[in-house]
UniProtKB/TrEMBL annotation:
It comes from the Eukaryota. SUPFAM superfamilies: ADP-ribosylation (SSF56399). The keyword Cell cycle does not apply. Pfam families: PARP. This is PARP catalytic domain-containing protein. InterPro entries: ARTD_PARP, Poly(ADP-ribose)pol_cat_dom. Residues 1189-1248 form the PARP catalytic domain. Gene3D superfamilies: 3.90.228.10. One of its GO terms (molecular function) is nucleotidyltransferase activity. The keyword Nucleotidyltransferase applies. The lineage of its organism: Eukaryota, Fungi, Dikarya, Ascomycota, Pezizomycotina. Keywords: Glycosyltransferase, NAD, Nucleotidyltransferase, Transferase.
Length: 1324
């Protein structure tokens, strides 16, 4: 390799390339290549003296970046003194120099390799050792391995002149110190296995305390830095035991340091006399005759007898101890804690070892935990592991566990006794806190039963525990008490009750004997328990709880009542239960039922005790009962009630004088007996007066003197029942109360002598009392007193006025009369205002709920005019015949359309309809809120009259709901484009511009006359057409695509040949592969559409299928759903439906089969009329034809089916260049037409393609075109070239066979001109 520049630069580069990243200590270092580069360098320099060679090579070494590599390349050619001087002096390692120990060591290795005389082998070995340590540190080799390699290399003594002596001694010292620290850490952490692995190599360099390395420096290093090296070298432990102990030491630091040290080295002996382990030294050491304890570290082992000096026995003791330690390390947990507690810091005895060995014999961690607690917490009895305590007691029956039983049995029995006390305390606390205690009672009983099942255990238990087990109550008793207590809460209340406390106390006495209970209630609770055992009748048990908790009665009385419950009649049980169960509610009706049952003859003898319960209830609720009786009971039932009460308490002193409740009052019962003869009168008054003070006075009576007056009052009432005074007397009686008996008697005595005229006058006065105007009754009294009444009548009037405190002298106070007049006038005005408000409210409610309002007014016998009637009345007479009332809030507007031509009817789908009908729903103010648009007559399916559409109802569109105009038309009949357009116009008008129905009628009339003008969606941008369509705006096209399918694909029903033509020309254009012919339909979509169209049947068959689906689905009809049967897979139906919609809407014109009158002779059966093209084409053409009488010419153009779709959509265009150019441009750029059909026919072509079921395949196309204005000059052979495409309009489309004969122009032009004139004048 040759480099430009100086030879030294080349040498440096070559050396770097050859060495790469290698170092002299590497095995594959390239020594030869490097030396060759230096030899080449010297060769280039020629012969040089050795001194110059040394100078040049040393200069290369000094300037090279990697001096050890440079030395490896040059050292062979440098003299020994120069090389030694370089290594010793120039490359000396400085503390802060750039040349480090690692590089210096590499340089020494390189120098030794090239010139061993300059650098000795021992120096090279030291260098290698230092280099390896500097490069890798301790990452690759352990400290022990490093120390083992260094010991043989240590110098015996310091020699002058040798390199790296200080460095190698310092490194060896550091490694030895690190090794000593490592062993110290491992031994302090009890990781003896790791320590054995680290120090095992020491045994290979030592024998009987002598170092096998013949190097005093190595022995001196070990003695100074690792004084215990002899113990480590002599160490021969049990490796398996160290492994087990090491796993335990790694998991957690252990306090068992002294015990684990038994397998450790013998550090106490001198070097050369160390034993294989500490355990071996202890055995070898033995004990003297007077010694009873063996010591090491902080541990002590004491023996039972003395002497115990035989090594075998001592060996056995230590074997037992290490075996216990082995188990503790493997088991861990509580056993280790037990070992620590018994051995660490304490004297280890034979009993200690037996306890540990017997615990190991159990080998059950839960039992070990209990044993640990027995030693660590002997006075704290645990209750959490009672099952384990029982299991331990059972295990302690084994004779092998005598020592363990001696130390733990007492603790176990204490735990059982403590468990009993804890369960009792828990139960007692629940009782004292009045909480639910059943769970704690079950736990106590379950524990008793478990102890009783342990027959081997009973004799050793505490006496109080034995007594509790022997006297424990049966399960059924506690269960019954729990049911009773639970039932108390559901029957009485959730709050604590005396009965609940009594049950709790009884249960506490059963389960916790010795506590002071309630001895006087034991009989009551036991009576409840007996009753629960005798019957399960829920009603009787429920009543039992209420009786047991009944207040103000003795326990014996309640016990006797509980004894009666099993034989008490069921009806009486139910009635009593209902009365007692609702003490704060409404028990009155049930109480009366209970009184009736208890008064029956067959029960009186058996109910002596229960009469007292009835008495307590009556006394507790007498006010409520009395009020209920007077208010709700008839007079007959009231008297019967009192008779039954007397029958129940006959022979007792319950019914007594005034101090008793009125139901039990002697006066009330005496008065009721006198009322028996007035029962019919009281019954009638009850029906008239209902309830109140008057009826209460009559039923309850008053004091004895006033009762005589009441009897006279009743006589007046009885005598006047059938006279003309009856109604008046009833009114007077209604004001009776305890303080006006005298006044009422005087009034009735006067009334009974009045005439019928006087009675009417009194009634008039009484009726005026309820008038809102103050003092109105005074005016009525004054008016009646001025009239010609008899003296007796005037007396009656006067007494009536005084009874009701009506003044008789209002005439003396004119100011009062004026005030009354003003008040009446003000009330009149208020009534008129309220009447107007109610009328507005009626109108508002009628708009929302018309039927409900009508029913309400009919029920109130009120007649009100409807909002429709009000609206019709406001219309001018000319509209009267055009607006019809449909219902109370609906009207229908009629817009006649008699002048529609046949083609116009076909365009809008009107059929035989004569009118557009708009139905409006009006709200209360006459503003329309809903509407629907339809055609009159049977035009709902004008394309196929035999089909009955399911759109036979009126579905109104709400004006103010949402922000979108009508999109789906659901009213009666099949939807069409003009109804769609008219509905959207009407929605905008009613929402934003409505003023009156007259204005709405004028607005819609103008729109009907202009149907077809403007976009179907936005209403803007195009002239009047035969059939409306959308503007080219994308938003309008998308909106119209969401309209009903019946609007978009109407050609299927209306004109099947046209639908056939549309599909045929689309398929033909798609087969050419020219996307320009299909407008916005992509070529891929066109190919897919063509394949799907082939699955369709002929159009008439398809129309029948769709009509059937319309009949079945009605408003929910979807074109894609109807096409499912023609698609495979069915998911293609959506794409096929989109294709059909696009075919019918993309050309935006009106194409029909030529009507019979417009058909041209000699042009075959396939004749079509393009009544109007797309709006933009018609607008452009109309600029050349401003009036129907404008001049136009008829020309012909031959083409093919594959070009026809583009022509229908875009009109004829000049295509004078490929790929759309068909026949060339002989006469220049333009549209070529012919005067004669035969000339144009020559240029027509048969197109390939077409859908499978088409009747128009393989036909040529001849177009009849209308040219606005005059013909241009003829180009020859009757051919005309039109350069302005807007002057042309395609009107006729003829499809004929290839061999068809063309008629002469003079024969077909007159009928064609007639047809075109009809199109222009809209008379077609």
């Amino acid at each position: 390799m040759k480099f430009k520049g100086r030879e030294s630069d080349a040498w440096h580069k070559n050396i770097n390339v050859a060495a790469g990243s290698g170092k002299p200590t590497d095995v594959d270092f390239p020594w030869i290549k490097l030396q060759n580069h230096t030899g080449y360098y010297l060769k280039k320099k020629g012969f040089l003296p050795q001194c110059q060679t040394d100078e040049r090579l040393l200069d290369l070494i000094r300037n090279h970046s990697s001096k050890e590599v440079a030395i490896a390349a040059c050292a062979q050619h440098i003299s020994t003194p120069a090389l030694r001087n370089l290594v010793v002096n120039e490359l000396k390692v400085e503390p802060n120099g750039a040349f480090g120990l690692h590089e210096y060591s590499q340089a020494i290795v390189a120098s030794n390799h090239a010139n061993p005389e300059a650098v000795s082998d021992i120096e090279a070995q030291w260098a290698r050792c230092l280099s390896e340590n500097a490069a890798h540190g301790s990452s690759s080799r352990t400290l022990g391995q490093q120390l083992q390699d260094m010991l043989p290399l240590l110098p015996d003594q310091v020699a002058s002149g040798l390199l790296l002596q200080t460095e190698i001694n310092s490194l060896a010292c550091r490694v030895c110190m690190g090794f000593a620290e490592q062993l110290e850490v491992l031994s302090s952490r009890n990781r003896w296995e790791d320590a054995h692995v680290a120090a095992e190599w020491l045994s290979t360099i030592s024998s009987s305390g002598l170092l096998l390395i013949p190097n005093p420096g190595a022995r001196q290093l070990l003695d100074s830095q690792l004084p215990t090296w002899g113990a480590w070298a002599a160490w021969q432990p049990s490796v398996a035991r160290l492994h087990a102990w090491n796993d335990y030491a790694v998991r957690a630091p252990s306090p068992l340091k002294d015990l684990l040290a038994l397998e450790g080295p013998d550090f106490a002996s001198m070097i050369g006399s160390a034993h294989a382990s500490l355990r071996n030294r202890l055995i070898a050491q033995g004990i003297s005759g007077s010694q009873t304890t063996l010591h090491w570290g902080n541990s002590h082992v004491r023996f039972k007898r003395n002497p115990f000096t035989e090594s075998g026995n001592l060996n056995g003791i230590l074997d037992r101890l290490t075996s216990v330690v082995d188990f503790a390390c493997s088991a861990g947990g509580d056993y280790t804690a037990l070992l620590v507690h018994l051995c660490v810091g304490k004297t280890i005895t034979d009993e200690t070892l037996q306890i540990l060995e017997q615990t190991r014999l159990l080998d059950k961690p839960p039992l070990t935990k209990v044993i640990l607690q027995a030693f660590t917490l002997p006075n704290q009895y645990s209750v959490s592991g009672i099952n384990e305590i029982i299991e331990l007691l059972l295990a302690l029956r084994d004779s092998r566990l005598d020592e363990l039983r001696k130390w733990t049995q007492e603790y176990a029995f204490g735990c059982i006794a403590n468990q009993v006390r804890e369960l009792q305390n828990t139960f007692r606390q629940q009782i004292d806190a009045e909480n639910w205690w059943e769970d704690s009672a079950w736990e106590l009983l379950i524990f008793y039963d478990r102890l009783q099942e342990q027959t081997w255990l009973l004799a050793d238990l505490d006496h109080f525990v034995q007594d509790l087990i022997a006297s424990r109550p049966p399960w059924v008793t506690i269960e019954t008490l729990g049911i009773i207590r639970n039932s108390i809460g559901s029957v009485t209340s959730s709050a604590p009750t005396p009965l609940r406390s009594q049950v709790d106390a009884y249960c506490r006495d059963l389960l916790v004997p010795g506590l002071t209970g309630f001895p006087h209630v034991r009989g009551l609770v036991e009576a409840l328990i007996d009753l629960w055992k005798q019957t399960r009748d829920e009603k009787r048990l429920e009543l039992a709880l209420l009786i047991a908790d009944f207040p103000n009665t003795s326990c014996q009385f309640r016990c006797d009542c509980l004894g009666d419950l099993t034989t008490l009649p069921y009806e009486l049980v139910i009635s009593t239960l209902r009365v007692l169960k609702f003490p704060n509610g409404d028990p009155d009706t049930e109480l009366f039922t209970l009184i009736r049952l208890m008064a029956s003859e067959n029960m009186l003898s058996a109910l002596k005790r229960w009469r007292h319960i009835l008495l307590v209830v009556i006394e507790r609720h007498h006010e409520t009962l009395l009020r209920h009786a007077v208010t709700n009971l008839s007079a007959e039932m009231w008297l019967e009630l009192l008779d039954r009460i007397r029958a129940i308490y006959e022979g007792s002193e319950v019914i007594k004088d005034r101090d008793s409740p009125k139901l039990l009052s002697l006066e009330v019962h005496g008065w009721s007996q006198q009322m028996a003869v007035y029962l019919p009168t009281l019954t009638r008054l009850k029906s008239v007066l209902k309830c109140g003070p008057a009826m209460e006075v009559l039923l309850l009576g008053l004091s004895a003197p006033k009762n005589s007056q009441l009897l006279r009052v009743l006589n007046f009432v009885k005598d006047s029942e059938f006279g003309h005074h009856g109604r008046l007397v009833d009114i007077i009686i209604a004001c009776l109360h305890s303080g006006n008996v005298d006044d009422v008697e005087n009034v009735l005595s006067a009334i009974c002598q009045t005439s019928s005229r006087g009675a009417e006058a009194c009634l008039s006065v009484l009726g005026s009392r309820h008038h809102e105007t103050p003092r109105f009754a005074e005016i009525v009294v004054a008016r009646e007193l001025r009239r010609d009444h008899s003296r007796q009548d005037r007396l009656a009037l006067t007494r009536v006025a005084r009874l009701f405190r009506i003044s008789l002298h209002i005439e003396r106070h004119p100011s009062r009369l004026a005030k009354v007049a003003d008040t009446l006038h003000e009330q009149y005005l208020q009534l008129m205002t309220e009447a107007q408000r109610l009328e507005n409210l009626r109108l508002s409610l009628r708009a929302v709920l018309p039927q409900d309002v009508s029913k309400l007014l009919a029920k109130l016998r009120l007649e009100a005019s409807s909002v429709v009637a009000d609206t019709l009345a406001s219309l001018p007479p000319l509209l009267g015949s055009l607006v019809e009332e449909v219902s109370e809030n609906e009207i229908e507007l009629r817009f006649p359309a008699p002048d529609l031509t046949r083609m116009q009817r076909l365009a809008i789908g009107a059929g035989d309809a004569e009118d557009f009908l708009i139905r409006l729903t009006l709200r209360h103010d006459g503003r329309p809120i809903k509407f629907c648009v339809r055609l009159s007559g049977k035009s709902s399916d004008q394309m196929n009259p035999e089909v009955t559409s399911k759109r036979d109802g009126h579905t109104a569109w709400e004006v103010f709901k949402g922000d979108k105009p009508p999109q789906k038309l659901g009213c009666r009949g099949r939807p069409n484009r003009d109804i769609y357009q008219l509905s959207r116009m009407l929605w905008h008008h009613l929402r934003d511009d409505f003023e009156s129905l007259e204005q709405t009628h004028d607005h819609i009339t103008s729109k009907v006359s202009m149907l077809g003008q403007g976009c179907l969606v936005c209403g803007l941008g195009q002239r009047r057409l035969w059939r409306g369509t959308t503007c080219p705006t994308e938003s309008c096209i998308i909106t119209f695509s969401e309209a009903d399918d019946e609007i978009q694909v109407v050609e299927i029903w209306q004109d099947p040949p046209v639908m056939d033509l549309l599909l045929t020309m689309i398929c033909a254009a798609a087969s050419t592969g020219q996307p320009e012919l299909l407008g916005n339909l992509s070529a891929s979509n066109a190919t897919i559409a063509t394949s799907m169209l082939d699955a369709l049947p002929p159009i008439p068959t398809l129309a029948k299928r769709l009509n059937y689906c319309l009949n079945v689905f009605g408003e929910s009809f979807q074109l894609a759903q109807a096409l499912l049967g023609y698609c495979n897979p069915p998911s293609n139906s959506t794409s096929l439906a989109c294709c059909l919609r696009w075919a019918c809407t993309s050309y935006r014109g009106f194409l029909v089969s030529a009507p019979r009158q417009q058909r041209i002779p000699s042009f075959g059966i396939h004749q079509f009329l393009l009544v109007n093209a797309a709006p933009d084409l018609e607008i452009a053409f109309s600029r050349h034809m401003p009036a129907p009488e404008s001049t136009s010419q008829i020309l012909f153009h031959g083409t093919s089916l594959d070009r026809l779709h583009a022509i229908v959509c875009q009109g004829l265009r000049a295509q004078s260049r490929p790929p759309l150019q068909r026949n060339g441009a002989t006469y220049g750029h333009g549209i070529y037409l012919a005067d004669e059909p035969s000339v144009a026919w020559h240029y027509a072509k048969v197109s390939e393609g077409g859908w499978k079921s088409s009747e128009l395949k393989n036909l040529k196309v001849l177009l009849g075109c209308e040219l606005a204005g005059q013909k241009p000059p003829c180009k020859g052979n009757g051919i005309y070239v039109i350069t302005d495409a807007t002057r042309l309009a395609v009107r006729y489309i003829f499809l004929l066979e290839n061999d068809a004969q063309m008629p002469a122009a003079k024969n077909v032009r007159p009928p064609m001109e007639s047809g075109l004139k009809s199109i222009r004048k809209r008379s077609l």
